Amino acid sequence: MVMDIVAVVLATAVGMGVGALWYGPLLGEEWRQASGVTLEQFKQSNFKLMMGATVLLELVMAIFFELAARDDTVMHGVQLGCLTALFFALALAVHYLFEHRPMRLYLINVGHTSLVFILMGAICGFLR
After folding, report:
1. Contact 125, 78 (CB under 8 A)
2. What is the pLDDT, as a whole number, of residue 69?
3. Residue 74 CB contacts under 8 Å (≥ 6 apart), including other chains
4. Which of helix, strand or coil describes residue 27?
5. Is the dihedral of CA 12, 13, 14, 15 positive or negative?
6. Sequence-separated contacts (24+) of 106-111 with Cβ below 8 Å
7. pLDDT, tens digit, for every residue of 30-88?
């Protein structure tokens, strides 16, 4: 099985871009309020380490979608992204229920991950 490096790099970049927008200007303040992370805590964190780890994790997710994209269609990639997002959302819901975490935080996080999974699947399906 040959992996399309262009698809992996593009899917990783799209994942990073969506995250930057989602947790930045679109829903950053909502996320901080729902998660309880203060702006001061965020500013004091090791940003280089967080971004490096995020790039690595996005890359691993992109590789998963590239390897799982058996077909050369965008629709198959979108279906793969949707199914993966659904399983992720269901598994994460169990944790949020037992941790008594806010529904708003769950929706923000699952919305982001679902969008990223669908886009990664579409990219890998299209470029496969």
Report:
1. yes
2. 84
3. 122, 125, 126
4. coil
5. positive
6. 108/22, 108/27, 108/30, 108/31, 108/34, 109/31, 110/85, 111/22
7. 999 999 999 899 889 999 999 999 999 999 999 999 999 877 789 999 999 999 999 99
> Concatenated DSSP letters for 31-43?
HHHHHT--HHHHH
Alpha-carbon distance 13 to 84, whole Å? Answer: 19
Helices 103-127, 28-35: crossing angle, 10 deg rounding: 130
For residue 73, the tally of other CB atoms under 10 A from its CB is 14
Q: Which two tokens stand for residue 61?
A: 């997710």
| Residues in Cβ contact with 89 at an 8 Å cutoff, skipping those fewer than 6 apart | 110, 113, 114
Are 126 and 11 in contact by the 8 Å Cβ rule? The answer is no
Dihedral of the alpha carbons of 51, 82, 122, 73, in degrees to the nearest 10: 150
Structure token digits, residue 65: 């979608």
| Structural domain spans, the chain | 5-127
